[in-house]
Design brief:
about 90 residues; five-stranded antiparallel β-sheet; globular
Length: about 90
């Protein structure tokens, strides 16, 4: 699923966990930040991880990337700053 925001940016879904959409922002084809969104509110999680760019066959890089995505889902599920994560908006 791709949703176009303007001529040069879009986001691409890579994980859906516990009714919270986890996505990546791309600008002009370059990945900028992984994000979590609840409803229309976007929360930046962290800068891109160079381990995600590791060559194919690098199991450590893949394991680290999966762990980062799992942790991002847990943070999004708990909410940010004590806020409740809305369900079913997307």
């Amino acid at each position: 699923m791709h949703v176009r925001f303007d001529e040069r940016s879009y986001f691409s879904v890579f994980l859906f966990a516990q009714n919270t959409l986890i996505a990546e922002i791309f600008v002009a084809g370059q990945r900028i930040f992984p994000i979590a969104t609840t409803g229309l509110r976007l929360i930046l999680l962290r800068p891109p991880d160079p381990r995600l760019e590791s060559p194919e066959g690098d199991d450590e890089g893949e394991k680290s990337a999966k762990e980062d995505r799992r942790q991002a889902g847990e943070v999004a599920e708990r909410g940010f700053g004590g806020e409740h994560v809305s369900e079913g908006i997307w």
